[in-house]
Amino acid sequence: MALSLGASACTKGEGAKAEGAGADPSGLPSRPAPTFETKNLEAEEVSLEDLKGTVVLLNTWATWCEPCMRELPVLADLHRSLEPRGFTVIGLNADSRRKLVAVRKAVAHNGIPYPVWVDFENKAQVAFELNGYPTSFLIDREGNIRWQREGVIVENDPEFMRALEQLL
């Protein structure tokens, strides 16, 4: 299954879609995150399961996606400021293996302080039912998706920050 997205169609727009399923007393929807394993930039095996106990923003992105590239500094700032509270951003890159040099350059150029995982086999497209990039998933400490967005997270994004604060 291929994800066909043009340069202008890699996102459905800022704040395009935020959703989830189920509910709990926090008022946030909840559904289990899929089991997902891949590799990081150092070619080490990584897994969402290993992050239980941490609030995770899993952000799917690609170097060819201009909205994704605009979002990177915002996510870097979020990670830096909230990591002491048990929060991490995971950047899940969807570029092909042949673009690994470009991925590394984008990470270095943007000073990305958070882990970057690579998805050369496009497993996330199926596991997370991706429709476009960027798409972000806010995962609680127990491994449940509590919020998601197809589109860009902007600086001081009120909807995202409300959901995040409830999980921290």
Features:
168 residues, alpha+beta, nine-stranded mixed beta sheet, Glutaredoxin
Number of strands: 9
Largest sheet: 9 strands, mixed
CATH architecture: 3-Layer(aba) Sandwich
Shape: globular
CATH fold title: Glutaredoxin
Highest-level CATH class: Alpha Beta
Number of helices: 4
The overall pLDDT average reads 86
| Proportion of strand residues | 15-25%
Pick out the low-confidence regions: 1-9, 11-23
- The SSE string, one letter per element, is EEEEEHEHEHEEH
Number of separate structural domains: 1
Give the structural class.
alpha+beta
User: Mind telling me the C-alpha Rg?
Assistant: 15 Å
Main location: other
Protein name: Thiol:disulfide interchange protein DsbE, putative
GO molecular function: antioxidant activity; oxidoreductase activity
InterPro entries: AhpC/TSA (IPR000866), Thioredoxin-like_sf (IPR036249), Thioredoxin_domain (IPR013766), Thioredoxin_ResA/DsbE_sf (IPR050553)
